[in-house]
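Q: Give me the 3D complex with aspartic acid.
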Amino acid sequence: MKVMKFGGTSVGKPERMHHIAGLVSKETEPVIVVLSALSGTTNALVEIGEQIARGDRATAKQSIEKLEAHYHSFVNDLLKEPATLAKARAILGEHFEFLHIILKISFSEALSKDILAQGELLSTKLFCTYLEEKGIEHALLPALEFMTIDANDEPQIGSIKIKLGQLIAHHPGKRVYVTQGYICRNSRGEVDNLKRGGSDYSASLIAAAIQATVCEIWTDIDGMHNNDPRVVKKTVPVEQMSFEEAAELAYFGAKILHPASIWPAQQYNIPVKLLNTMQPEAKGTLIVQEAGSVGVKAVAAKDNIIAIRIKSSRMLLAYGFLRKIFEVFEKYRTPIDMITTSEVAVSLTIDNSVYLKEILRELEPFGTIEVDESQVIISVVGNEISRTEDMVKKLFGSIMNIPVRMVSYGGSPHNISLLVPASYKTQILQQLNKGMFGLE
Ligand code: ASP
Ligand code: MG
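A: Here is the predicted complex, encoded as structure tokens.
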């Protein structure tokens, strides 16, 4: 059995949904189809939640009505038969009535998660209705009945495996199973989610739970590219990379894959394929244990980085200094991305500024603190890049004119990270494209 996950743009238009139903029905082995919400829906639901949270119910009502109208026209183009059309309209009726009821009750955090869940609930139910119209045998496996997270928001892979297995056993012999990405239940039994972009994570967890032959992530680009196609003109897809390389790239800015989605596939050794819905014959990117080749594969940029430098003569020959600094970040649950040290100073970066003020206040007693906001981490990722001849020369040779604030080299054999002011992002990505990949 394999997993095929389709993102928001792959289901965002009726003709796209028709197209992916065609892709799915061509499969020779049984598939679990994991769907995102239609593109734009989760953003709209976030807004509706915010409008309700601030008591602006009139605006929220308008937003709900606008979304409802969008879905009605979607359904009109998706389906032809009166029976399935009526069914789809009843589905819309049920979910939009729920949103209208929410308008009338007092707002809570748990309720906002219920609002967010409507996107995936709708996309999967509508897709199933279309499969029904086309006579494609299928079963809907409700994610809220098997996808669970614990009190630390960590997926409970053991119980996901058992519950999903039981659900599949209830519908034996189907060629197509459909389920929601992104949504889950938390330790209190409430509806929750795996954070924005979390459908990839769902797909990987499901693939791990059923020991899938492959976890296919279908999007609107033909795989992971060597550079950011939104910034640089000429980019090429990477044919194969290791889980480690993919994790570095996903974490450090490649938007194609949710960073958390790597570990379940890696731990259970499930190959991941990144494929293009609009170009299904394109090779895409294969992510497996083996990197496939040695050398630099790709560069990526991570935005909105804050650099903090702590300078202290007390650090000289001292031990325990770094621990005390790290404890401050741990206390405020703020992950550190990059770190470099000298004998009397340490520089580190964070991308979560929620507790920046508190962190800076607690760091003050340690020495002089300098903060640089609006930075970007440029990651150069590959296999055994430190062993690649001339790599460092090529890398720095191609960016001589760019003020690099930090360099992290040797932390892993797969990554070199550079911190530069955000205003240099386009320039450095372009120069690296030429210098490292010979592409302009
Ligand atoms: N619909 C959710 C989002 O937009 C999850 C996903 O698409 O992966 O974030
Ligand atoms: Mg996504």
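A quick observation: The longest strand covers residues 295-311.
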